Amino acid sequence: MVKKLRIWMLSVVLAGVAALPLYGADPGAPAERPQTVSDHFDGGLYFNPGVAQPPAGQEPRRGGHGWIWRWVFGNDWPEWPEQAASFPGPPPEVRVPKGALRVTSVGHATFLVQMDSVNILIDPIWSERCSPVSWAGPRRHTAPGIRFEELPPIDAVLLTHNHYDHLDLPTLERLAQRRTPRAVVPLGNVDLVRSAGIPVVDALDWWQSVRLSDEVTVTLVPARHFSSRTLWDRNKTLWGGFVVSGPSGNVFHAGDTAYGPHFREIARRYRPIRIALLPISPFRPMHTGEAAGASRPSVHMGPAEAVEAHLDLGAQVSVAAHFQVFQLGPEGFDDAVTELASMLKVRDLKADAFIVAPPGSTVGSARPDGPVLAIGQDAAGRWGAGRQAARCVKPKKN
Hints:
alpha/beta, disordered N terminus, Metallo-beta-lactamase, Chain A, globular, 15 strands, eight-stranded mixed beta sheet
């Protein structure tokens, strides 16, 4: 009976997803200009250059809509703990002066970047689920590290791609209500983001840049991933990462990406990178009993690849992203963090070279030539009080 009910609800989800491209578009807004053919666009779809494309219908589901099938038919993934009572970090500064840099982890891929008097929010999601519907889909297990009401004025939102855990329309609508003036997106995402009420949306191709102020520039850089909001629009919009550059230095947000040669090219063009924000999960085989890598698509990095990317980039400090918030793969709650610590030891790197920053914690520097430090740690490397780990209790059923 439960499965029948879920199958019926699945049909409702699919019907809603199918209608999403029609949502909120302003009929009077100018349409985005079509992109010319390039080494990552064939005139109709975007693709990862140098990567063999899977046959139609055999694309990897990880990061797409595979959660729908798992929700209906179940899976053998380990249970994550229920969201614990926790306290967000302190309210961020309203602005930081020229030359200063502060990057605060909100959770998952969401970061507040404050540099050179400009406030930037990357891939913001404050919703309880990353899903086209509010009552099903991957549920948040760790609360946002900043209360939404305590955000400083946001000058620009950067969105790396259109997956629901990175482009969350309810959060964008809340930001629009706060009069956030601008968003920067990869090609193909203008109408969707404008539908949330953001008045100015800049669309970039890889290596294109736009100024956020007289001194701060943002550039869309390559990533190895894919895009989709529905079951029928795969790779019709572009994906990428961002480099934010100013007097305080360069900050790199990788978005969602597999490991690849693009990290070395980004380093060549933007070295030195002061802070790199790198995803560390999902990375395990999709089903128990499969050999490592047997079903792992080339669209995400695990800790081993993230450490390799850190070295390719030559970053002063890397900060882990994409872990312990939404369960998007078969990893246990602590697997990515534990594996990252092991990989740092294997590569003979100190723990402060690649930081696991709890939501609400900040990494930054007071001046362009100063060290990048974890703000809020004591001498033993422990984060300040008020940031609690999730309790290990049986989760509520979705």
